[in-house]
Q: What sequence folds into this?
């Protein structure tokens, strides 16, 4: 795995990210970004969190991260096997997440990703979709009483 995506692959991923996230004018420098642990960026509705897990992913997601002394850190979600069950999700956000992984899986560069990603879910718990560079957390729909 290389340190960077090639230019064509970077453009494809950024285009997919731009459909979900809003770019920030005052973002951290690349050096600041690489010092951070896994960083999560939330979509405007706070339904989807996109996590850059590797340095090459952090370099791409940097333009969506607000420069802050205390950046958001990716949560550690503990899934328990006894909690397996249904979870209602937004179709719109699920499609966006799958489309992002679809773009990543079709990269043609030297470091082309595998075509698959993992999905972890539990009853009334956010689902996590991930591969080696990226993770996406989708919040479940809440039932109104």
A:
């Amino acid at each position: 795995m290389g340190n960077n995506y090639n230019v064509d692959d970077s453009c494809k991923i950024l285009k997919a990210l731009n459909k979900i996230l809003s770019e920030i004018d005052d973002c951290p420098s690349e050096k600041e970004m690489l010092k951070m642990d896994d960083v999560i960026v939330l979509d405007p509705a706070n339904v989807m969190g996109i996590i850059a897990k590797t340095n090459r992913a952090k370099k791409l997601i940097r333009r969506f991260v607000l420069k802050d002394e205390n950046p958001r850190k990716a949560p550690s979600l503990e899934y328990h096997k006894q909690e397996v069950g249904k979870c209602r999700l937004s179709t719109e956000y699920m499609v966006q997440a799958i489309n992002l992984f679809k773009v990543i899986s079709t990269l043609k560069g030297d470091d082309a990703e595998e075509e698959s990603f993992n999905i972890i879910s539990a009853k009334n718990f956010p689902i996590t979709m991930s591969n080696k560079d990226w993770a996406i957390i989708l919040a479940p729909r809440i039932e109104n009483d």
Summary: The radius of gyration is 15 Å. The chain has one domain: 7-138.
